[in-house]
Amino acid sequence: MENKVCRVALIGRPNVGKSTLLNNILKYNLSIVTNVAQTTRDLIKGIYTDKNYQIIFYDTPGIHKGFNLLSERLNQKSYAAISEVDVILFLSEATGEIGKGDHFIIDKIKEINPEAKLIGILTKIDLVNDKNELDRKASDLKALGTETVLGVGLNLNLAYSDVIEELKKYANEEDFEYSEDEFTDVSQRFLAKEYIRLCAIEKLFQELPHSIAVEIDEFSEKEGKPYTIFATLYVKKQSQKGILIGKNASTIKEISINARKLMESAFQHGVYLKVNVKVSPDWVDDEKKIKEMGY
Q1: How far is residue 135 CA from its own chain's centroid?
Q2: What residues are designated binding site for GTP?
Q3: Looking at the record, which segments are called G3 (predicted)?
Q4: Binding residue numbers
């Protein structure tokens, strides 16, 4: 049997479970997951490979109404992913309702890539006990134009296998784009940035999740020594800097320790991490700063 490849975009509103879906399929915490909307800010590729199939997933920022320049840039990343794939998984929470935002996204998908196969994914189905309710939501997704609807949820491993088997139907014969042991195209430097941001959001999710950005200033690898990582955490206001540092620098120390542990687990290597905090006023509307931070 010839090798087959399928390129798939994970699309939906913020916080519907795109990154959770990808992490469960890959069995690796590639994309950071929090309860805060718009956590994903980058276009992250996750690669699933078995004997004859390679499925390349594009985890995207949630499409949302733009309220600053950063929001516009994040939406553009998602639109770019839609244009590059064979299949679009449109994710919607089983516990929610189809709203104007969903209709907007579906219309955008059909406008950008009308040839792509559109599959509906109901997320968090473990939170819904009424099968009739799930059937109704699935019917709503089909009414939007999805060819089929699958459900995924916590501890439902077979459901993720079903997603893979469905996607194999749309794979095309071609050589694998990535080697069989690759599961992403992002670097350890990128993951370090994301782990720091994750730990900051988890610590301060009520105060300033959308004000936080991270820049890796140095990532040094020397044989026989821990990775040396210097990073800067940016906030928009001086008052937010005080919150992030905390009394006697207790908050930033806790964030740094938690991020270092995540890195050491993911990299299977010792890490020395130093995180500074700086104020960058209104960086979310600063074209130059947004580019410097990789968005």
Answers
A1: 27
A2: 12-19, 59-63, 123-126
A3: 59-62
A4: 12-19, 59-63, 123-126
Look up the domain containing 112 and give its range: 4-173
Judge contact between 45 and 57, C-beta under 8 A. yes
Closest to 7 (Cα-Cα) out of 57, 52, 46? 57
Calpha distance 258→198 (Å, rounded) = 10
Residue 56 phi, psi (nearest 5) = -105, 115
pLDDT digits (tens, 9 = 90+) for 211-248: 788 999 999 999 889 999 999 999 888 888 998 999 99
Q: How far apart are alpha carbons 263 and 273 in whole angstroms? A: 10
The whole-angstrom separation of Cα 82 and Cα 109 is: 7
Query: End of a domain among 173, 207, 222?
Result: 173
Report pTM: 0.86
Residues 151 and 281 placed together within one structural domain of the fold: no
Residues 163 and 267 reside in one and the same domain:
no
